[in-house]
Recover the amino acids of this structure.
């Protein structure tokens, strides 16, 4: 690729314009933006809320606010920081606002909890008798989408970019696994990089390159009222608004000079605006704003927004076609932030923010079925819980046995995974779990796993087989630890980006000279490894998850269950092949594990379960779910990638330096780690013991000031403690340091807990 590649952006909406601006600012000036219609048409309410449960989404919005606040178009503003005011009318809603306030504090957004009287002072049209409180975010506000788009486009044009209207894309041509041209109805454009920013039209663009773009167009209603006497003289045509944007549930309200604009999302896929669409939102608005009682809707519009199954954007490069990128399903408040990260990704080779939750490659293949995408997108858009009854999508060979034991399931990667089992509600260990504790049955399961023996279904965990004469050099290059051990070794190691950030953690079992089994985290790891395969065919990667299954047999009596069944001595550390009864299995154990993993083919899974279950009865074996699994992991001090640490953190910050062997030779990210160590870090993933159990994402205070945030938390049922991880500056991370956690508006005392040199709390 040329030093300054030819870039074609499909779509001159807000994301396309922002991307052209960000790319040209970084020196990629050969940028052509194609729009099938007219440039800079259509508009929206322009509501910007920064705070989200997801830190990355909040960072997107923070940058959008900062950028649009600095833009003008012919002397007119692009963003007005009038503020936002989220309202609560019920106690659960008020509790949720307190939680949102914690998110804002964690992610560095200025926000304040307000009383009903203070809410009415901020927005005098509001009836304080109808609300219990509010969350005021002064930096939120309203934007002019068309102005922001055109202002960014003009800056890009000044640097050399072209914007062309009336260019409907008909084909994207390719050669040798790369894009080469974009062909429209009238022209052909040479391209080294193509970026789809087509919005609801993205699936059609994806089909041109055999790519499923899993989004669904869903309706969003917006109406404007007639002139309101109560707003007369409050605003002028230049400023348009002065009061904060109101939000309650799915209703939003903003000023348009002397009228109000009201928005509401609707989980349907098509149809023009009809007055009946807005009857319920209008009734809710009248209840909150009595000034609307004598008003009416003057005009309304239904627009379509691109929705995904999890509510996150779709960002990244086509898995099988170099140079074809997508930046889709991007909500208005995130447009500039997304554009900046995609530009960094293209120009610098990787983004700076953690984008794993937005990565195009995050979905399993089965999750891309149109019906699945539509159902999940509607559920997420409407705020419907995903744990409501639904047909199972993927099940392990043990599913029927789980159902018979009363499993309560949650979905992960499309798999039905047991959370806990109602069959365990009569366990005697339940008496040792405090009556006030959440998840008491899971607590009893965890105690059994520590004191007797429990079996866990680990089938949903991603498993790969890496083979070929180049397998060892490839894995050594891709990961941080030394893998050149004799067959039978099991090694914990990390995947890094070029900047040294941790992209994932893996468990690698060497099964032969040229054969490895890799325990990974998700489809993202598969995509990352495949992108780096050597072109000489010496390495093959096969995902074996669907065709295999895995049980974890853990606890001090696990050996008594397994040893009589096994034809081979159970390994203290490493991997061996054996028969467990009549079932051929791969037995894995990593040093410090509380037992053994048993891997076999899916067709033999039920026989393996039944063999273990029968043999385990004299020893009090139980089936245990993921909630107990998470509790035990936390007690053992094991971090979870994507939750406790991400690509924004290096191994030493995350307490994983023992998995890095800088002296083994080159590996991806090694150069960025040179000079770094546990002694040089400025922040640290820190273990906390808390007075009360928290949930994660709460702000942590040191000496009264926000200092960091919680990543995850769990009850340590067998140690009798509430445990959490948090990112804190090193000066706050010393064992014994007292801190506080803001949890739903109150301060929970906590203390920094010592950990071993490898980051562990305890050994099973």
């Amino acid at each position: 690729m040329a030093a300054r590649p030819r870039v074609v952006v499909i779509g001159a909406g807000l994301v396309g314009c922002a991307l052209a601006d960000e790319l040209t600012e970084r020196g990629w000036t050969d940028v052509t933006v194609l729009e099938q219609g007219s440039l800079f048409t259509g508009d929206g309410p322009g509501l910007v809320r920064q705070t989200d449960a997801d830190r990355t989404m909040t960072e997107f919005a923070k940058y959008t606010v900062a950028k649009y606040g600095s833009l003008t178009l012919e002397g007119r503003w692009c963003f007005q920081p009038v503020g936002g005011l989220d309202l609560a009318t019920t106690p659960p809603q008020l509790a949720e606002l307190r939680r949102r306030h914690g998110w804002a504090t964690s992610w560095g957004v200025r926000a304040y909890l307000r009383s009903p009287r203070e809410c009415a002072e901020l927005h005098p049209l509001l009836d304080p008798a109808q609300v219990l409180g509010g969350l005021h975010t002064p930096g939120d506000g309203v934007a002019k989408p068309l102005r922001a788009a055109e202002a960014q486009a003009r800056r890009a044009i000044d640097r050399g970019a072209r914007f062309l209207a009336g260019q409907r894309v008909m084909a994207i041509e390719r050669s040798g696994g790369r894009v080469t041209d974009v062909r429209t109805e009238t022209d052909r454009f040479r391209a080294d990089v193509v970026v789809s920013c087509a919005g609801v039209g993205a699936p059609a663009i994806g089909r041109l390159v055999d790519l499923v773009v899993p989004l669904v167009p869903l309706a969003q209603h917006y109406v404007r009222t007639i002139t309101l006497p109560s707003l007369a003289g409050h605003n002028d045509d230049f400023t348009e608004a002065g009061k904060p944007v109101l939000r309650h549930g799915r209703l939003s309200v903003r000023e348009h000079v002397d009228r109000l604009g009201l928005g509401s999302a609707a989980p349907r896929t098509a149809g023009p605006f009809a007055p009946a669409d807005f009857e319920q939102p209008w009734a809710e608005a009248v209840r909150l704003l009595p000034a609307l009682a004598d008003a009416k809707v003057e005009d309304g519009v239904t627009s379509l927004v691109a929705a995904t199954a999890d509510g996150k954007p779709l960002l990244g490069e086509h898995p099988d076609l170099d140079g074809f990128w997508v930046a889709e399903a991007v909500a208005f408040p995130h447009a500039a932030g997304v554009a900046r990260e995609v530009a960094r990704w293209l120009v610098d080779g990787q983004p700076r923010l953690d984008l794993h939750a937005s990565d195009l490659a995050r979905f399993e293949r089965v999750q891309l079925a149109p019906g699945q995408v539509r159902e999940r997108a509607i559920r997420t858009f409407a705020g419907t819980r995903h744990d409501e009854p639904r047909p199972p999508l993927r099940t392990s060979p043990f599913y029927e046995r789980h159902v018979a034991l009363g499993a309560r399931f949650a979905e992960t990667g499309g798999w039905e995974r047991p959370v806990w089992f109602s069959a365990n509600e009569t366990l005697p260990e339940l008496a040792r779990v405090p009556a006030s504790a959440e998840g008491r049955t899971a607590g009893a399961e965890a105690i059994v796993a520590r004191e007797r023996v429990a079996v866990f279904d680990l089938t949903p965990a991603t498993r790969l087989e890496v083979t070929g004469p180049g397998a060892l050099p490839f894995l050594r290059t891709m990961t941080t630890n030394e893998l050149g051990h004799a067959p039978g070794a099991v090694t914990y190691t990390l995947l890094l980006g070029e900047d040294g950030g941790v992209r994932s953690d893996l468990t690698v079992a060497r099964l032969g000279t040229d054969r490895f089994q890799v325990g990974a985290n998700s489809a993202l790891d598969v995509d990352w490894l495949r992108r780096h395969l050597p072109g000489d065919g010496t390495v093959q990667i096969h995902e074996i998850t669907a065709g295999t299954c895995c049980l974890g047999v853990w606890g001090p009596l696990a050996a008594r269950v397994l040893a009589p069944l096994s034809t081979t001595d159970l390994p203290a550390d490493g991997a061996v092949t054996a028969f467990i009864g009549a079932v051929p299995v791969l037995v894995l154990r990593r040093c410090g594990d509380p037992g053994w993993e048993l891997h076999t083919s899916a067709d033999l899974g039920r026989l393996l379960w039944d063999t273990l279950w029968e043999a385990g009865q004299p020893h009090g074996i139980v089936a245990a779910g993921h909630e107990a699994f998470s509790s035990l992991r936390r007690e053992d001090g094991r971090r979870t990638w994507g939750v406790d640490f991400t690509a924004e953190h290096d191994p030493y910050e995350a307490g994983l330096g023992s998995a890095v062997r800088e002296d083994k030779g080159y590996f991806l990210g090694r150069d960025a780690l040179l000079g770094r160590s546990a002694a040089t870090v400025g922040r640290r993933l820190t273990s906390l013991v808390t007075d009360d159990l928290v949930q994660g994402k709460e702000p942590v205070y040191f000496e009264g000031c926000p200092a960091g945030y919680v990543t995850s938390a769990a009850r340590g049922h067998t140690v009798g403690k509430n445990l959490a991880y948090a990112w804190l500056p090193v000066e706050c991370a010393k064992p014994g340091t007292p801190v506080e956690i803001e949890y739903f508006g109150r301060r929970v005392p906590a203390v920094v807990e010592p950990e071993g040199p490898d980051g562990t709390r305890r050994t099973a």
Summary: The longest helix spans residues 91-107. The CA atoms of residues 232 and 390 lie 51 Å apart.
